[in-house]
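Per your request, structure below.
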């Protein structure tokens, strides 16, 4: 099935939720509201004609000042059985930067959602272990937001001196050089 046909089926099934469909160079992007994202993903996964069983990637996008809804969560989906793909985008407003977790559909999305939370501050409701995955737990702010300071936070991270001390300890070993 061609990606545009998948988009049309999605539009028929969820007419209120599909906000936009774009095709560019054979790739199709479907933009939806965040309200029924879990139901939409379940449909894309479970329908035997679609069977988008493989979530390739999930990432966040910050459109600071360019769109009404500042954030998007982008899902890159693929069907191993049918060999077709779809890009699904869910708009997330800044004043309520949360969206349902799709872990009940694709368990492998665990770290992707955690990374998106860690770097953009988008909360995935229903995620069983939503905590930072790349940055320390006490890190302040979200580095991939466009309003994050280029030089990093104004104050030095409290764990910085501990990391320096540990690195000095390892420099004494030949294998570290």
């Amino acid at each position: 099935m061609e990606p545009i046909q998948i988009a049309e089926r999605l539009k028929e099934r969820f007419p209120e939720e599909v906000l936009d469909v774009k095709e560019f160079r054979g790739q199709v992007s479907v933009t939806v509201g965040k309200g029924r994202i879990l139901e939409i993903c379940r449909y894309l996964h479970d329908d035997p004609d679609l069977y988008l069983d493989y979530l390739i990637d999930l990432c966040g996008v910050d459109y600071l000042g360019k769109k009404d809804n500042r954030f998007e969560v982008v899902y890159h989906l693929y069907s191993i059985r049918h060999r077709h793909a779809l890009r699904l985008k869910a708009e997330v407003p800044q004043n309520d930067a949360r969206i349902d977790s799709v872990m009940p559909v694709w368990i492998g999305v665990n770290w992707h959602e955690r990374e998106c939370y860690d770097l953009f501050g988008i909360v995935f409701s229903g995620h069983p272990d939503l905590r930072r995955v790349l940055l320390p737990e006490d890190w302040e702010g979200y580095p991939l937001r466009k309003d994050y300071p280029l030089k990093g936070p104004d104050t030095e991270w409290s764990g910085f001196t501990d990391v320096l001390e540990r690195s000095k300890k390892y420099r004494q070993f030949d294998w570290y050089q």
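Helices lie at 3-13, 37-46, 110-120, 160-170.

Regards,
D.
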